[in-house]
Amino acid sequence: MHPDVAKLVEAGRIPKPVGERLSQLAPGNFCIHKSFGAGKVVDWDLPGKKVIIDFEKSTGQTMELQFAFQKTEWIAGDDFRAKKIEQLEELRTLSKSDPIALIVHLLQSHGGSMTGDALEKELCGAVIPEPTFKKWWDSAKKALRESRLAVVPQKRTEAIVLRSGDRSPAQALVADFEAARDIKGMIRALEAIAADIGAFENDSDALKRLLADIDEGAKKAARVQLGQALQLVAARDEVIGSSKALELDPTAVRLSDLLLSADPVKLAEEAGALPSGRQRAVYEAFPDAFGEVWVEKIVRVFDKVGARGVTEIARILLDRGELPALVNHLRSTIARRALGTDALIWVCRERKTAATEVFSPDVGASILNLLENDHLSDGPRKTSRLQSLLGDDKTLLTDLVGIMDINEARNFSRRLLDCPVFAELEKKSLMARIIKARPETAELVNGSNAKRPEEALLVSWESLEKKKAELDDIIRNKIPQNLQDVKIARSYGDLRENFEYKSAKDMEKYLAHRRNALDKEIHAARGTDFKGSDAAKINIGTIVTLIDKTGAEVEMTLLGAWDSDPEKRIVSYLSEVGKALIGRAPGETVQVRDQITETMQELTVKSIRPFNP
Predict the structure, then answer these.
(1) What distance in Å separates the CA atoms of residue 208 and residue 226, rounded to the nearest whole number?
(2) What distance separates the 2 farthest-apart alpha carbons in the chain?
(3) pLDDT (tens digit, 9 = 90+) per residue, 215-247?
(4) What is the pLDDT of residue 150?
(5) Cβ atoms within 10 Å of 386's Cβ, excluding its own
(6) Residues 190, 238: contact at Cβ < 8 Å?
(7) What is the pLDDT of residues 337-351, one digit of tens each?
(8) pLDDT tens across 361-415, in order?
(9) Same domain, yes or no, for 399 and 443?
(10) Residue 55 structural domain
(11) Which of 163, 168, 183, 287 is deepest in the core (most CB within 10 A)?
């Protein structure tokens, strides 16, 4: 304790803990401030309750003692950050003569770990000139990995961890695995082992001891955490594949075992959430799991595994000469308008290569169907990427209408103009591309169709209240929370590789788009209870009984723009089915697409009656 402070403690003027903290701010000591960086205390005025600190970013900074108590943290004189203030030239010399020693010293000063981004902030500019930093760091990072003194991840946003104690690098890696408390921890430890497999060159027995633990962990996880079990086994296989001394026991659980015992729906969901490399390993295990029917099995999950899974499955089928099976599957699902968003995006992107045979006019109808149905649903949007693709891919619409006959091109253009998803400027831009490729469609945006007044949306009071509640939640809760998320993510540093910041900004764009869309929809909506609907023909607010070719009856209810419920056979008047039905009278036949099976049906209108709320 500083002598001047000790007198105050002995006199009972301040408690001993306060005196010890105050002594840390005595002249000659070092501290760290979140904004100003490291600093050295140059003077203080105890009666005046002030302290003067020379910070890296602000010299001669006078601070109130109470403020300094709260906003600074003491660091030792041999701390790397303290040396940057008084021994900067020594650090610069060390960076040239022994880069590893410099990095180890820096890690020790930060508790043994720090991210690559944080390391760059400490060294770049001050210790190592900015123009040469990248070259220096690439060389130093390679040397650090070879030294086995620290675990060096591939991503700069993950922590570089200094190894401690007398254990060898191999022992330390095994200890990390054994200390893992859950499957995620085991996976991370296995990834570190695979990245540093050279550490086990003379100690393969340490790895062999892990295999039994991995096997047991995978079996337990498969029951409730299938995705993590798949990741764990795939990570184990990566370790075995990179080690010449390891072989998989014949009785050990394999990816094919997990696939064979998994529910197909759950398998698609869990596999689709895995990283691309792990997904490929899972899909490559399908032949071992399912034998002769593996192609049939993998095609079934094709459009349910997300964007990464779609790409990986298509690549595997292409590599193994099984692409025709995928083509047949796509033809069928596109014709039934049953293909998912990610698979449809793949078809559009691969239209001149792997998907040439399935790129047909039905693709255009499928795109608009997905956009319209997603727009009419109450949940979060699932087709934003598909909508963006139409605008970003400058030749997609040109290629689509180019394979249509004139009637198909006109019908597609008319549907696009009526589609509520697109803003007016977006519609004009998309139509300009269509007209350039098919001038015959120009009549749709000239004359009577050029300036169509905004029609009111007829909606049920219940659906209108849901939209208003969603808008209120976005304004009151989600947007303020997102602003806070952006602020927090920004504090993590390096926006170029900051996943949290990118996600928060993406959510910011989505919320702004959703707010504007809801504002527009609510403004255009007119609530109704559908009472008094004219039942002479199929109209909004009517229940229609239809008969198919076998004589079976099906009943549909035609309601407002946001009232679709396929399970109850309630259809929106803006949907494809609704547009086909409206205006029909008893005795007329109509071609409609079944909302559940997605197949085309020819139905005859038997009777119509008013909807009674």
Answers:
(1) 24
(2) 105
(3) 887 888 777 788 888 988 998 888 888 877 778
(4) 83
(5) 21
(6) yes
(7) 889 999 999 999 999
(8) 999 999 998 998 888 776 667 898 999 999 999 999 999 999 998 888 988 998 8
(9) yes
(10) 3-77
(11) 163
Q: Does residue 455 have a pLDDT over 90?
A: no
Tell how strand 553-559 and strand 570-572 pair up.
parallel
Residues 52 and 66 in one domain: yes
Can you say whether the dihedral through the CA atoms of 598, 600, 606, 609 is positive or negative?
positive
Handedness of CA 402, 408, 410, 414 (dihedral sign): negative
154 and 136 co-located in one domain: yes
Q: Look at residue 502 and tell me if it is in a domain.
A: yes
What is the percent of the chain where pLDDT is above 70? 95
Last residue of a domain, one of 452, 472, 496: 452
Q: Where on the phi/psi map is residue 586: left (φ > 0), alpha (ψ -120 to 50), or beta?
A: beta
Q: Is 580 contained in some domain?
A: yes
Lookup result for tokens 């002030």: 50
Residues 35 and 153 in one domain: no
CATH code assigned at 158: 1.10.10
Q: Are 363 and 404 in contact (CB under 8 A)?
A: no
| Nearest of 567, 561, 558 to residue 594 by alpha carbon | 567
Residue whose tokens read 């049920």: 460
What's the per-residue H, E or C state across 504-549?
HHHHHHHHHHHHHHHHHHHHHEEEECCCCCCCCCCCCCEEEEEECC
pTM score above 0.85: no
Report the CATH number that the domain containing residue 483 is assigned in CATH: 1.10.287.180
Task: Clarify whether residues 437 and 389 are in a common domain.
Answer: yes
Rounded Cα distance, 57 and 126, in Å:
11
Do 447 and 329 lie in one domain? The reply is yes
The pair of structure tokens assigned to 377 is 């649903």
How many domains does the chain fold into? 5
